[in-house]
Amino acid sequence: MHASFGVFALLALTVSSNQPTAAPTATQVPAKKIPDEWTMTISVNAGGKECFFVSLVDEKFQGMAINYQVIDGGHLDVNFVLRSPTGHVVEEDQRSPSAEHKVLIDDRNHRGDYEFCFDNSFSFNSKKMLYFEVMLLDHEGSYSSMFERVLESEKVMTETMKNFDSITAKVKNNLNSIERDQAALRVLESRDRSQMENSFEKINTFGILISITIIVGSLGQVFLVRRLFNQ
């Protein structure tokens, strides 16, 4: 399930490198309204920074995974930093084109609002466009909705297979009907061809007889005329 950060209480903050601004406190939202997976495509201006907050206060979530990839702009690189609710740096990348990070709640990483930022302050004229995905993890360190997605996929696959079987049966019946029609047409064609060949043979035979009769009659007339003149 994908959703935008604005709907699910993730606070986006654009920070200029020339005018640093204090990050606002993330708004806490009831756990039932927090999605367990979402994606976003953003642009980070040259010399700018984009920061986001995600709340890990719900007991059913034991961590989160973040992966990102720069898809356009400059050398396809960006700085990344992930901070815990206490402010210490959990993960950090320098001029990286892509990366994936996983954070689990433990003695060092406590529950609260985590901040992650994409920093393009090292670039003077190249705006960066990047895609990132955030997934909340369950107590086993897996995507909490994976099982539901698998079940949903299986249901969709089952329905698809049922529809496919139904369509296949209809196609098979139609092909059988076409085959029967073609067989009947072949029988009719064979019968008509046989009749035409018989008629052709009869016409040829009759034509030959007529031709012989005409030739014999013509020769007889010539013979009679010559005999009359000879007498």
From TrEMBL:
Gene Ontology CC entries for this record: endomembrane system; membrane
Topology class, membrane: Single-pass membrane protein; Single-pass type I membrane protein
Compartment(s): Endomembrane system; Membrane
Keyword terms, alphabetized: Membrane, Signal, Transmembrane, Transmembrane helix
Coiled-coil ranges per UniProt: none
Transmembrane segments: 203-225
Domain GOLD: 49-136
This protein's record includes keyword Calcium: no
Primary location group: membrane
Leader sequence residues: 1-17
Family per similarity comment: Belongs to the EMP24/GP25L family.
Protein name: GOLD domain-containing protein
Annotated source species: Steinernema carpocapsae
